[in-house]
Amino acid sequence: MGSDPPSSNIEIKIHPRRQDNVVHPAVPSPMGVPAASAPPRQQQHLFSEFRPFKRWFPWMVPTFVVANIAMFLITMFINNCPKNSVSCVADFLGRFSFQPLKENPLLGPSSSTLEKMGALEVSKVVHRHQVWRLISCIWLHAGVFHVLANMLSLVFIGIRLEQEFGFVRIGLLYVVSGFGGSMLSSLFIQSSISVGASGALFGLLGGMLSELITNWTIYANKFAALLTLILIIIVNLAVGILPHVDNFAHIGGFVSGFLLGFVFLIRPQFGWVSQRNASPGHIAASVKPKHKMYQYVLWFMSLILLTVGFTVGMVMLLRGVNGNDHCSWCHYLSCVPTSKWSCKSQQVYCESTTIGNQLNLTCLSNGRSNIYLLPDDSTSQVQQLCSQLCN
């Protein structure tokens, strides 16, 4: 996904890969008898009936998937490539056909349509106070490949989390992480628009990591799970150093989700749960607290860091602060230039002359010119035609 042409001027938030190594709580016997030493019938009874944590039916994540796909279809309907562009890909789809591959290789709409639908554009957030774009952009995608990759990741990661923690906590984790990713992206990438749900998806990965840490004592195979999860996160963040991939959204979403995990995904101790599920005649040796002290400490510290970070970030953003002015090396977190590609966004400029419905465009960078016949209501596509002419 890092092959977007500079002329498309879109930063893509790519998807994190699925997390395959799932850890499960080490379930003790509710009466203190080791399960391995219990009779076979008693073992079957223990493992079939003792469920320390509620399992939720996952309906929110599939709803999010449907909503994202529906938003992409609506965006393509509004894009209407045959009406607003000189050439289209898959013309048989009618107004759902795609922009030329040179403009959008992901099979999707134009950048102007994404901007109209609510893509993250810093100038509109700062000067027109359209803060809602920090949320709306996570429901938009740049193309078929983009939306399919992100939605597959959401299914693999989100459904398991919703089953374990419910729709309220995972829904808040998803949306707030997406907001955090958009905010960090706005502070460092201000020359292009940004779309994609990957900031929110990286927030789910961050939440999985903090959940494993804060509920450390109840999991089996914890070290293997921790190393696997960290490796997956490192690989996905490393992919973000490719050009035209919005790694700041990934980092912001991951950090937000990591801190939110300590707040939303805290579990009570097994001893406390076992006491609540014990038979009425059973006398516990000692009363177990619901949470350990380190869980309370992590909860409090994370809540403070989230509040301060979001407040400072929004104040800086609305004042028009460019994060690169205060961090000379931070731009390498999103793109590392090599001999194969450049990280600088290419701005295209054209000279235009309009006579009736006849548009004469001349690209100032390469000198090429062309004449277009446009309907009266298509003059808004001049920038799009200029991008095609200059590449």
Kindly list the characteristics that best describe this protein.
two-stranded parallel ribbon; 391 residues; elongated
Q: Structural class, please?
A: mainly alpha
Q: Strand order, biggest sheet?
A: 3-4-5
Radius of gyration of CA atoms, rounded to a whole number: 25 Å
Straight-line distance between termini? 19 Å
Helix content: 40-55%
Explain this structure to me?
With 391 residues, the protein is mainly α. Helices cover 49% and strands 6% of the residues. The protein has 14 helices and five strands. The chain has helices at 40-49, 60-79, 81-84, 111-117, 122-127, 133-136, 144-165, 167-188, 198-214, 222-239, 247-264, 270-277, 293-318, 382-389, and strands at residues 10-12, 193-195, 350-355, 358-363, 369-373. Strands 3-4-5 form a three-stranded antiparallel β-sheet, with helices on one face. Strands 1-2 form a two-stranded parallel ribbon. The radius of gyration is 25 Å and the shape is elongated. It starts with 9 loop residues before the first strand and ends with a helix. Mean pLDDT is 78; it is low at 1-8, 18-38 and 41-50.
Question: Outline of this structure?
Answer:
The chain is mainly alpha-helical.
List the helices and strands and how they pair.
Layout: E1 10-12, H1 40-49, H2 60-79, H3 81-84, H4 111-117, H5 122-127, H6 133-136, H7 144-165, H8 167-188, E2 193-195, H9 198-214, H10 222-239, H11 247-264, H12 270-277, H13 293-318, E3 350-355, E4 358-363, E5 369-373, H14 382-389
Parallel strand pairs: 1-2
Antiparallel strand pairs: 3-4, 4-5
Helix pairs in contact: 2-7, 7-8, 7-9, 8-9, 8-11, 8-13, 9-10, 9-11, 11-13
